[in-house]
Design a protein that fits this description.
This protein has one domain: 3-Layer(aba) Sandwich (Aldehyde Dehydrogenase, Chain A, domain 1). Helix content is about 40%, strand content about 20%. It has 10 helices and 12 strands. A hairpin with a 5-residue loop joins strand 5 and strand 6. Helix 8 packs parallel to helix 9. The N terminus is likely disordered.
């Protein structure tokens, strides 16, 4: 394209003749795509949203995800659930820890992305470090929550009665809009910790960290389809997230009563679990809680006869 050409400048030498100087190099701008099935496709709609910095300067374009993008994500999430739910709790713990390791190595990039959108360097650094710590927190819980929440139940007959937890299945989520990374991590980590797969709409105010985090996931032993990240307008997808018949649960982490009521209404119609995980500040201690893992689990009770 003509606008991308760099004209070589000319300088006069000691003999009065001119010579061409080396052209100035243009930096390669990052293309922010969506993340579905372990790949980085562009949205099928071809639409995009412009992301500007605090001074109105153009920072990046992000994909405006469509219903078709979401439906494709559901298909791969369902397929990934079959194997991910069978992965041992210890291995899921290792993978969550690996995500934290990889994020630690790229924290400078994540801080720079938040600063470009108006966050102070100090606040951005805390957000990234808290996100790393949150991943480690849930890595620790991955092979322990079953022991805490499962039980041996008292019964009057000659049986052993056990209640155990199993993952719910495919979960959709609307991530917090005011936290670029910590809110996203706080939604994703407990869901996949328990053996579920997830499709999540990222923050609209801080979307850059979401796709960069997808790159971290892609290099952290997370199987394709376990986590799928869409960018764009969550309001356009909420109806699909909460009404799709192959989605087992939906998590809403924003503070909009109209959207929350719409989700609950749709969820009731197709017997889908719905949770509101809104927090004004995800950085507080209670922002990490094993009960978030429990929300996306089903209780299975088994009877076993005694003395037969």
């Amino acid at each position: 394209m003509a606008s991308a050409r760099i004209q070589a400048s000319t300088k006069a030498n000691s003999n009065g003749k001119t010579k061409e100087s080396a052209p100035e190099r243009l930096p390669v701008q990052k293309t922010y795509k969506i993340y579905i099935g372990g790949k980085f496709p562009r949205t099928e709609s071809g639409r995009f949203l412009r992301v500007d910095g605090p001074g109105g300067e153009h920072v990046a374009n992000i994909c405006f995800s469509s219903r078709k993008d979401f439906r494709e994500a559901v298909v791969v999430a369902r397929k990934a659930f079959e194997s991910w739910s069978m992965v041992s709790a210890f291995n899921r713990s290792q993978i969550l820890y690996r995500i934290a390791e990889m994020l630690e190595g790229r924290k400078t990039q994540f801080i720079e992305e938040q600063v470009a959108l108006g966050t102070s360097a100090k606040v951005a650094e805390k957000d990234i470090l808290d996100s790393i710590d949150r991943l480690i927190y849930y890595a620790g819980w991955a092979d322990k929550f079953q022991q805490v929440f499962s039980s041996v139940n008292p019964v009057s007959s000659s049986h052993f009665n056990f209640s155990m937890l199993e993952p719910t299945g495919v979960v959709t989520a609307i991530a917090p809009d005011d936290k670029g990374l910590l809110g996203l991590v706080s939604i994703i980590a407990p869901v996949i910790c328990g053996g579920n797969t997830i499709i999540v709409s990222a923050s609209e105010k801080q979307p850059l960290n979401a796709i960069s985090f997808a790159e971290v996931l892609n290099s952290s032993d997370v199987p394709g389809g376990v986590v799928n990240i869409l960018t764009g307008k969550a309001s356009e997808l909420i109806g699909h997230y909460s009404s799709h018949m192959d989605v087992n649960a939906i998590i809403y982490a924003r503070n909009d009563k109209a959207q929350e009521n719409k989700i609950r209404e749709n969820a009731v119609r197709n017997i889908k679990r719905s949770y509101t995980w809104y927090r004004a500040d995800w950085a507080v201690a209670d922002g990490a809680n094993p009960y978030y893992i429990l929300d996306c689990q089903e209780t299975k009770t088994t009877w076993h006869p005694v003395g037969i």
